[in-house]
Amino acid sequence: MATDALREAVETMRAVRDRCVWTQQIDHRALVPYLLEESHELIDAIEAGDAAGMREELGDLLWQVLFHAEIASRGADGEAFDVDDVAASLVEKMVRRHPHVFGDEVAETPERVLELWNAAKASEKRQRTSVLDGVARSMPSLALAQKLIGKAAQVGVGSEVALAVHDAAEVGAVPESEAELGDLLLTLTAAARQNGWDAERALRERLRSLESDIRDAES
């Protein structure tokens, strides 16, 4: 690792795994709820502008990374990896995806940086057969919706969504700021509650339909 402090954190995690009976019985799947909780607590600190909270929550999130890596280091032969392997893979990926920093490419605008990033990512994922490959279905539904709408546009499946936006604009239902968007989303959620609908389920079911449309377009 890059610094003594990080190495000390790694060794602390190893000692805890060796000596704490609760920690010894935890596996990757059992850690997932804690990973989600720590991630949300970090987001809260960031959005609140709480620097001290961010420092603490980043540490808690780092602990999750170290925990998973320590569990993996004790895996079966051929499948085991440790935090050094994780760090090495990260460095290799970031160098590859930043040819304008570590190579000969030139990028003077954020748009060009994004082009280079996407080109490198596409080269890495040549074995993928669908734009949906690699999309995490466990994402929050709104984040997943934004992701899938972008994927739909890549394969030319966007007319229905665009039409819905157009129709909403006709009746003045398209927000003009993030604050207005928040108001609209809250209004829609309140309407769902009033009618006894599950807003989360409604969006996820609609996203399954969009995924099906994307796969149809690809085939």
From TrEMBL:
Signal peptide: none
Domain (NTP pyrophosphohydrolase MazG-like) ranges: 28-102
InterPro entries per UniProt: MazG-like_dom, NTP-PPase_MazG-like_N, NTP_PyrPHydrolase_MazG
CDD domains to which the protein is assigned, alphabetical: NTP-PPase_MazG_Nterm
Record-linked Pfam families: MazG
PANTHER family registered for this protein in UniProt: NUCLEOSIDE TRIPHOSPHATE PYROPHOSPHOHYDROLASE
The name this protein goes by in its record: NTP pyrophosphohydrolase MazG-like domain-containing protein
Organism: Microbacterium marinilacus
